[in-house]
Amino acid sequence: MRLRRPPTSAFTVPAAAATAVLLAATSASAAVVTPHPAGLGRLGTCQEKALRVKATPGGPENVVHISVTNHGRSSCVVDRIPTITFAGLDGSAQTVPPAESGPYTLTRGGRAYAALRTADPASTEGHFVGTLSVSADPSHYGVTFGAAAVGMPQGVHVWEPITTLWHGSAAAATSALADALG
Hints:
This protein is of the alpha+beta class and about 180 residues long. It is built from two helices and twelve strands. The chain has a five-stranded mixed sheet, covered by helices on one side. Strands 4-9-10 form a three-stranded antiparallel sheet, with no helix packed on it. It has a two-stranded antiparallel ribbon with strand order 3-6. Strand 1 (about 50-55) and strand 2 form a beta hairpin.
């Protein structure tokens, strides 16, 4: 499994500010990345307490449907890649297609969907774990789901897990996963 960046902490901002001051003092330049399209730059990261994350059986063996709903008072953003980790294992599910982190806007009352495949059902390799955790943004702790709750009563079989980006419908997430699996 490929590792994703760790959750952002309060210590990251001072370090970034110090780097910016150092770059300015040395006349070095750095590329500036705009995190949102024009007009959306003022949206902040969704507060974890304003989100409801769900994970349910996905039909085929080793597939989980994931959703996140914004119950906050206004639109906000989460990472466009759901962070999915597995009890006792390092790393997280890889995105299909491969993608970099970026913002995904959730309107007030809005919902986003992703699909996860934990292991190829024919695989004899991997590990079985009792839980998986899902967060809508890597800065959040996330929600932990037991294996039985996601349709895997014998344990979550993990081998090269993959997840889709967030999509506007469950059908689009399911289709993206099917496309990735060929």
